[in-house]
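Bug #77: duplicate submission created two jobs. Keeping one. Sequence:
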Amino acid sequence: MSPHTAGVWLGFCLCAALVGLAGPALSRNGDVVATRLNLSGGWISFGLFAMYLLNAYVLFLHGAR
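Kept job's structure:
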């Protein structure tokens, strides 16, 4: 395995661990926002999760330099 491939896998595993740790908090916060806005909790949680993944991806790309 090349060093680049190992770095990609390491980054993926770190992001997956962060998502696993943040998932319960995102779910709780999504339910609170959904209740206050009269929306489905699934849509709010999906949006928060997507923003979290985008943020983690951007930080990984720019923080690796």
